[in-house]
Amino acid sequence: MPGALKLIIPEGRTLKDVIRIVGVELDGHKPIIIELRKVPGVNWRFANAICNVLKINKWQALGSLTDEELEKLEDCLKRPQNYGIPSWMLNRRKDPRDGQDKHLVGPDEEIQVKMDIKREIELNTWRGNRHMYNLPVRGQRTRSHHRKGSTVGVVKNKELRAQQKSENKE
Questions:
Q1: Which of 19, 78, 98, 111 is most deeply buried (CB count within 10 A of its CB)?
Q2: What is the pLDDT of residues 31-48, one digit of tens each?
């Protein structure tokens, strides 16, 4: 089967079914690089960098890691600067509050994004107003895209259309 992933399980290790890392439950039967991407704030490149820094085979099953390796993996996710990951890979560079480079993962990242949007709205910036009215923020068109919900005034079903015409005649 071409394109199938080859899962690596070291000899003598048992697989754990569910692994909890930074508040996210991950499947222990899948490769590390695939499962790390399910953590908010971790993309493919960052997950690959973590596997390289910790010298872990990225195609190894996540459930086959020992408790010490899992603790080290979680610590690396929370504090990647301590492990030699460059600052340009971090997702929160030059934080507006304290000016430091950070990497936020899990619920912390989601909360911080909401706080940033709230701050933009309170400052009454252009971006804040676009967020407030649920319009595209980064310059996309509004004439033909960004519309949400069902169409107005269009009946797609012929039977419903005929029913509407009969109601209009009465």
A1: 19
A2: 999 999 999 989 999 999
Residue range 20-27: mean pLDDT, rounded:
89
CATH class of 1-105: mainly alpha
**pTM of the entire structure?**
0.72
Mark 79-95 as b/e (b = at least 16 C-beta within 10 Å): ebeeeebeeebbbbeee
The encoded tokens of residue 30 equal 């899948």
10 Å CB burial of residue 59 (0-12, 13-18, 19+) is middle
Residue boundaries of the structural domains of the chain: 1-105
Please say whether the beta carbons of 110 and 22 come within 8 A.
Answer: no
Cα angle 76, 113, 142 (rounded to 5 degrees) comes to: 135
∠ CA 59-17-27, rounded to 5°: 50
